[in-house]
Amino acid sequence: MNKTIGIFGGGQLGRMMAQAALPLNLKCTFFEASTDCPSAALGQVYSTQAANGLQNFIQSADVFSLEFENTPLADVDALIAQKDLHPPRQALAIAQHRLSEKALFDELEIPVAPYKAVTSLEELHTAVATLGLPIVLKTSRGGYDGKGQFVLRSADQIEQAWAELGPAGELIAESFVTFSREVSIIAVRGQNGEVKTWPLAENHHHHGILSHSIVPAPNSTDLQPVAEDYITRLLNHLNYVGVLTLELFVTDKGLYANEMAPRVHNSGHWSIEGAVCSQFENHIRAVAGLPLGSTAIVRPTVMVNIIGQHPKSEDVLALEGAHLHLYNKSECEGRKIGHITLMPNDTAQLTTLCRQLAKILPNPLALSEDMNI
């Protein structure tokens, strides 16, 4: 097979998708604003700024995918008039609009926190009165890594919340979910309808940015089949092809859906070394119409994001069972510039390794030194 896969976006996700494609003799091209993006070393980059950039990109590949759910629908529409895109346009459109996403979860009986649409200050007052406080106010479109959100804890914050987010247009107010932890389920669906899922990841955040993921999520035996059921409902309803991620809250009433991501996901980076077949390889397999690989876990794993500043590579690589992935991105506060996968032989070693890694990372808040797996 000598197919070329075109990817909307050229960041680290596209880079790792292309890395997974190479052993399968599949090439990738990219559509990205900067031709000096992380994916540039893996294939031709067509600039979004060029006059004929989109059409040249469309002609560059046989089948297409994406690495970013905010890919413009106008570009997608131009593409699907000529070529196939996986995942489907419908999944992308729903994921770009939080109210549509919640409505889909409701339709498929996937539990979510109570919510209200908000388009005016008056409606925000009504949402507060109906849902109670605290609530999380979010923009319906855009926003990631904690952006486009306001946690409203008291009535005297209503005016401030509206002033900050109101200009963005349609908002969604969600009841604040009391949860013990956040987890994510990642699954892949092939063109023949086959579905495979990876073990749940337990996710920890710092300032709204994913800090690290623990896989399998501790004490998740009872949660796994429920999460698999929810994500399978989504995959089949959308006639989805490729990798889909569903972020979930663990509550005393069970799992509540937070949001879905129609793409490979940061909390699945562990799978490159930690699973028999990674999220990236299985996504490429699905998009190319190839049989899916095993999603079984190899060993307990922790994936740690490198945020803002690079550690010394030699210090990381000196750790037993550590794998370093750098994205060819410049240092910048709050930016994900790489990740580290820790894969010791047993769980006891994992805790020790995490503490050792915490002393190496330039950002001491990225991973707590006293964490226990």
Can you offer a commentary on this structure?
- The chain has 373 residues and is α+β, with helices and mostly antiparallel strands.
- 29% of the residues lie in helices and 27% in strands.
- It is globular.
- Strands 10, 11, 12, 13, 14, 15, 16, 17 and 18 form a nine-stranded antiparallel beta sheet that branches. Strands 3-2-1-4-5 form a five-stranded parallel beta sheet, sandwiched between helices. Strands 6-9-7-8 form a four-stranded antiparallel beta sheet, with helices on both faces.
- The protein has helices at 12-21, 53-59, 73-80, 89-95, 98-107, 121-131, 158-165, 223-237, 271-274, 279-288, 313-317, 347-360; strands spanning 4-8, 27-32, 45-47, 63-66, 84-85, 115-118, 135-139, 149-152, 171-175, 181-189, 195-197, 201-206, 209-215, 242-251, 254-261, 301-307, 322-326, 336-342.
- It has twelve helices and 18 strands.
- The longest helix has 15 residues, at 223-237.
Instruction: Profile the largest sheet.
Output: 9 strands, antiparallel
Oligomer: single chain
Strand residue content:
25-35%
Q: Count of DSSP helices? A: 12
Distance between the termini: 42 Å
What structural category do the secondary elements indicate? alpha+beta
Residue share in helix: 25-40%
The Cα radius of gyration reads 21 Å
pLDDT average, as an integer? 93
| Global morphology | globular
Unreliable spans: none
Order of helices and strands: EHEEHEHEHHEHEEHEEEEEHEEHHEHEEH
Tell me the total number of β-strands. Answer: 18
